[in-house]
Amino acid sequence: MAAPSLHVSGAKMSKSDRRLLRKHNKFKINFARRKDVHISDIPTQHLLVNNGGLGNNVQREQLLSVFEPFGRVTSLVMEQDQPYAFVSYSSIPEALAACTAIHGCLVKALQTVPSAQDVQLFLTYVDRVPDVAMPSSGLPEGLVMIRDFVSEDEEQVFLQCVDWDSSDSQLSEGAHLTLKHRRVKHYGYEFMYGINNVDPDRPLEQGIPHECDQFLDRLMALGCLNQRPDQLTVNQYKPGQGIPVHVDTHSAFEDGIVVLSLGSQAIMDFKGPKGEHFPVMLPRRSLAVMLGPSRYQFTHGIMPRKSDVMPVQSASGDSLTLSRRDTRTSFTFRILRRGPCHCCYREQCDSQTPHGSQVCTRRLQGHFSDTRHSPWPRVVEFLKQLPLGALVADVGCGNGKYLSINPGIHMVRVLELSWLKS
Ligand SMILES: [Zn+2]
Predict the structure, then answer these.
(1) Distance 295 CA to ligand 1 centre (A)
(2) In contact, 238 and 307? CB cutoff 8 Å
(3) Which residue numbers delimit the Fe2OG dioxygenase domain (predicted)?
(4) How far is the CA of 243 from the centre of ligand 1 (A)?
(5) pLDDT in tens, the chain (422 residues)
(6) Strand, coil or helix: what is 358?
(7) How far is the CA of 173 from the centre of ligand 1 (A)?
(8) Which residues line ion ligand 1, judged by CB < 5 Å?
(9) What residue ranges define each of the domains in the chain, with the CATH number in brackets?
(10) Exposed end of the chain (fewer CB within 10 Å): N or C?
C-alpha cells in the first residue's frame, strides 16, 4: 500500500494542496540521490518525515509528541541542518497507522523555539533509518572540561557581582563594532579590542571582584595553572549573539585561559590548523581551561545562533536535537604575560612571527599586528596623503613611530595633552 495521498478522497484538491504535493514529490526525487536510505513503495516500519527536521526548526520533543500515540517509537533520527527526520516503529502496522493519520497534517510550532513556525508533515516509507552522524565527540588537545564546577548559589553570586552600569564607558568605539552589542566588562586590566592586547603598565582601578576568591582558590588547587589569574573579562551573550573565531593573543596572556559559563549553555567551536573541528558543549556552571594546543594553536568562537544542535540519548537511541540558548554570561580569567611568548606554535605566535597576531586575530580585526610598537595602517595612509609642508601634532606619540612616514610634512611630537593646554 502506498502512502495515503494528501487530499481527502472525493474532495477537490485546492491550489495550495497541489503546490505542497508538488513540493513533496520534488523532495522525494531529490532524496532518491541518497545512497544509504531508499524510499520504499510498500509500507515498512520506517518513516521519512519531510518538513520535520532540525533544518526547519522542528524539535525532537515535538516529533515524539506527534508519533508516540501511534505505537512504540524505536528510533528518531534527526540530522544537522536537514529539514527532515526518520522515525522507526517496532512494527509495520504502527507505522501504517501513523502514516495514515499524520501525512499532510499541520503540526503546531513549539512556543519555546524562537523563529519556529507551524509545519505540515509529509511521510514516506523508507527501507531503513540511517546511522546517526553525531557531532565529533572529544575535546581539542589541552582542553580541560569540568561540569558543575560552581553551584547554583555560587552562580547567582557571580552574576550579581557584575556592575554593568559602569562598563560601557570603558569601551572605545572600535570595541563596540567588534562586539556587536554583546556586553563586556573588564577587571584587573582592560583588554583593548582595537589592538587585541593589554597594557601591563595600566591596571584598572577595579581588580578581580573578591566574590571570585574562593573560586580562584579551587581553580589553583586543580594544579593546571602556574599563576593565579590577574585579569577577568565578563561577557554577556543574549540568544543570537556570539564571538568571532580567534586565538587569544599570545603576547598578551600566559598559558591557561579559564572560561566559566553561567546562565546558559553554548557550543564553542574549536578549529585546529589541519581543519580539525571540535564543537564543544559548554554547559551552564561548567569550567573550561584552555591549555597547550587548545590555547595557543586552535581558534575558538561561538556561532551567533539562538539554539544549538546537541546530541541526546534516549530510549529511542542517540540522536540530535535543538537546544535553545538563554542569556549566557561567561567569566574568562587570564594571566597577563610580561615579556614575549616562547611557545612552540610559531605560526600562531605574534611574538615569534611578524604576522603571528594577524593569524590570531585575522577574523576579528583584519590587519593589526603588534600595534604598541608598529604604525597603524590607517594613520600611515592619512599621513602619506597630506600636502607638502603640512604641520602635524602627534599627541601621545609614544615611541614616535609615525615621525618618518612622510618626509614632506612637519611632525611635532607631543608626549602629553597637558602640554597643549599650557
Ligand atoms: Zn606564542
Answers:
(1) 10
(2) no
(3) 228-337
(4) 22
(5) 344 333 333 345 677 778 888 888 899 999 998 888 999 999 999 999 999 998 888 888 888 889 999 998 878 888 878 899 999 898 999 999 999 999 988 888 766 666 677 888 999 999 988 866 555 568 999 999 999 999 999 999 999 998 877 654 445 444 444 455 678 899 999 988 778 889 888 999 899 999 999 999 999 998 889 999 999 999 999 988 899 899 999 999 999 999 999 999 889 999 998 888 888 989 899 999 999 999 999 999 998 887 777 776 665 556 677 677 889 999 999 999 998 999 999 989 988 886 554 444 333 333 333 334 456 666 777 777 777 777 777 665 544 566 666 777 776 655 444 333 33
(6) helix
(7) 28
(8) 250, 341, 343, 349
(9) 15-126 (3.30.70.330), 143-361 (2.60.120.1520), 377-421 (no CATH)
(10) C
Contact call for residues 261 and 312 (beta carbons, < 8 A): no
- CA 352 / ligand 1 centre spacing (Å): 7
Q: Is the dihedral of CA 150, 147, 289, 308 positive or negative?
A: negative
344 CA from centroid of ligand 1 (Å): 7
CA–CA gap between residue 230 and residue 207 (Å, rounded): 8
Q: Cα of 364 to ligand 1 centre, how many Å?
A: 18
Ligand 1 mean position, distance from CA 188 (Å): 22
Enter the C-alpha cell of residue 422.
599650557
What gap in Å lies between CA 318 and CA 184, rounded to an integer? 37
- The closest alpha carbon to 53, from 102, 87, 92, belongs to 87
CA of 181 to the centre of ligand 1 (A): 30
List the grid coordinates of 85: 527526520
- Tell me the CA–centroid distance for residue 268 and ligand 1, in Å: 22
Rg for the chain, CA atoms, rounded: 28
In angstroms, rounded to a whole number, what is the distance separating the alpha carbons of residues 167 and 84?
45
Residue 274 Cα to ligand 1 middle (Å): 18
Residue 228 CA, ligand 1 centroid: distance in Å: 20
Distance 279 CA to ligand 1 centre (A): 24
Q: How far is the CA of 204 from the centre of ligand 1 (A)?
A: 25
Contact 335, 229 (CB under 8 A): yes
Q: How far apart are CA 321 and CA 80, in angstroms?
A: 9
The closest alpha carbon to 257, from 285, 223, 292, 283, belongs to 292
**Start-to-end C-alpha separation, the chain:** 95
- 270: three-class secondary structure by DSSP: strand
